[in-house]
Amino acid sequence: MHRFSDHDESLDNAGENDLPRIAQEMLHINADDRLLNLSTGWGTLELYLGSQFPLFITTVSPSQEQAQHAYDLMERAGISERVQIETCDFRDLPPQEQFTKLVCLEALDWVGQKNLGDFFQRCADVLVPGGTALIYCTTSPSAFTGSWSQYLGETLHYHLYTLTTICPGRDTALFATLNDYLDEIHRAGLEVDLIENISLDASMTYARWFENWDQARHIIHMRYGEDVYRQWELYLAWSSSILLRGGLSKHSLLLRKPIR
What we know:
Number of helices: 9
Radius of gyration: 18 Å
Structural class: alpha/beta
Shape: globular
Strand order of the largest sheet: 3-2-1-4-5-7-6
CATH superfamily: Vaccinia Virus protein VP39
Strand content: 15-25%
Number of strands: 7
CATH topology: Rossmann fold
Number of domains: 1
Distance between the termini: 34 Å
Largest sheet: 7 strands, mixed
CATH class: Alpha Beta
Order of helices and strands: HEHEHEEHEHHEHHHE
């Protein structure tokens, strides 16, 4: 998910500009940090941070393919000795490992609402006192009443579509409200430094992904078939639309473990 400076900015430029903002303005990365990233993706964040700062990074990916791609990136950049890539649930990491910074930009959407308490407690456990966490989360309106009632059925169908077609076998927390997240954060003993609504940026990111997907449609048809192309075409367009219209929201949460 990227932050955009204007509506015409390209996805690549937004990504390049977003990385230093995350590192310097949000997390205040320094050379002594030990960072845990819970959503490796293709390794972009690890590559930037590991190249710009001499810190140690542990990153978690559920995908063996993405983990291998990220490892190859770190090898070529000469930073693989400082980047440890794990293919596991981050709750299975050794409990004695401690980190000064934690990042989770995508993975929380698939944790499941019933697991939010365990998730934030684990975050609190692995952070040192004074440690900082940057987390993105998708939330539902506080109540599907009044003008929001029109989104209840759509949000339910979107939720079911992602579970059955896009990420079968996983869970989502799409019906969790921002207050639900804040309640679990406070129960885990974490403090909230900053909350930002980044729904427009999220909608624009999905819209750019949709454009890229459409431009590659012939390659996707040949490799994966028409059904896969259509399934993801609908998902990307629908995600952009529902975020833009307010049926779902995206928030950036900057958290801190207090020193006691």
